């Protein structure tokens, strides 16, 4: 496989775009799926958001300037699509984003694609108590081991702010797990 710069050139090429996009999906589908799944919780919802993410990437690849890594740009789209999905679902159910997430976590036990045990479920409940930004930072660092530098590109914020958010999130999660 070619390097990222070559892939971007192919993605912007009229003759190579479709094959390059298939390569892109092969390379990033699983990582983006798990990133989205950590946000929306449900397998079916993650599949829908992943599809929307790839459609948006395909339609907007010509707008990719190369100021950040392609990976960071795609993760930003996936993150925004996930948040938009939760917001729309909350609006449709006439409830809050927090309640939508709580409902999704409660449904994890009946999700055939959820392989976690009671401890994993408890961790998901703890994460759901965090504000949205802390959830994103915690999930990206803890589950995906994304570097703060890359996270700063994805979330468009400073590394220092992200480190602080992660530290606070860890403390809140520890407090939740010890008291529940």
Structure description:
By secondary structure, the protein is mainly α. The protein has a single domain, classed as Orthogonal Bundle (Rna Polymerase Sigma Factor, Chain: A), CATH 1.10.1740.10. 76% of the residues lie in helices and 0% in strands. It contains nine helices and no strands. α2 runs antiparallel to α3. The longest helix is centred in the N-terminal third of the chain and has 24 residues. The mean pLDDT is 88. Keywords: Sigma factor, Transcription, Transcription regulation. This is Sigma-70 family RNA polymerase sigma factor.
For the structure shown, list the relevant keywords.
180 residues, mainly alpha, Rna Polymerase Sigma Factor, Chain: A, 9 helices, globular
Output the helix-strand order. Answer: HHHHHHHHH
CATH class category name: Mainly Alpha
User: What is the percentage of strand-forming residues?
Assistant: under 5%
Number of domains: 1
- Name given to the CATH homologous superfamily: RNA polymerase sigma factor, region 2, helix turn helix motif
Shape estimate: globular
Low-confidence stretches: none
Task: From the alpha carbons, calculate the radius of gyration and give it in angstroms.
Answer: 17 Å
CATH topology: Rna Polymerase Sigma Factor, Chain: A
CATH architecture: Orthogonal Bundle
Number of contiguous helices: 9
Percentage of residues in helical conformation: over 70%
Mean pLDDT: 88
Distance N terminus to C terminus? 48 Å
